[in-house]
Give the backbone structure.
Amino acid sequence: METYGQHHYPGRLFIVEGVDGSGKSTQIALLRQWLISEGYTVFFSEWNSSPLVKKTTSKGKKKQLLTPTTFSLIHATDFADRTEHDIIPPLKAGAIVLADRYIYTAFARDAARGVDRRWVRELYQFAVKPTMAFYFRVPLEISLSRILTGRTELKYYEAGMDLGIHSDPRESFKLFQQRIVNEYESMIDEFGLTVMDATLPIPEQQRRMRKLVRPYLKGVRRLRSPEQKRTWVDLTRETLPVEMARKGAMEQ
Ligand SMILES: Nc1ncnc2c1ncn2[C@@H]1O[C@H](COP(=O)(O)OP(=O)(O)OP(=O)(O)O)[C@@H](O)[C@H]1O
Ligand SMILES: [Mg+2]
């Protein structure tokens, strides 16, 4: 897609993608710890976490009111809000932003729900292109065993029950996940995703990830004094260094 242009902000954006249970959150949490210990300013943003859509999503899910298109639009709203508040300001301020799932999650899930691929891609045209997008590739049996072990219940939308592909939630989940895998696989070349072997042990994957990320850290500002570092370590929406972000915004 040509629409997602390279951003020219001083910060860096690293994102992780893959099916449920592929190990994304594990790896990005370890990457975050490492970057902080190296003195970088790190922000974190998670899929579907914007307070703006929380109520609507939970209401719609509870009452099973969400069609694939409304579901898609809700996620795009969430993403737009987070792009504006949580992603662009720190990038402008020269920080590192890590995102657990990004636009490719929408592209994979919405297409798996039968939404038109081109339509979804156009919906997200405003997105910032990541510096690097990691795709955690894992055989379905492994990801399923990682997440289904010990779980008694799958949620309605999580299992793709809205698609009516199977009456048993576990079977429906597997079929839905397979569709998502197919979408991810076809996006590797389309978007230049960096494929990670997600079957490897956690430390080995992390070692590879850091090696791949390191070259992109060249020129990114690091904090020196321990006092400064303390202020920056615990960065949430509330502790965002507003002055710095505003300054970045004004320079644009
Ligand atoms: N390389 C690995 N080998 C074995 N188990 C792993 C590995 N990576 C993660 N796990 C385990 O698999 C489970 C799922 O991992 P994690 O939560 O990181 O996946 P995820 O991709 O973020 O899933 P979701 O999309 O559901 O949030 C966890 O219990 C985690 O400890
Ligand atoms: Mg996760």
Summary: The chain has one domain: 12-235. The longest helix spans residues 68-92. The beta strands are 12-17, 42-46, 96-100, 132-137, 194-197.
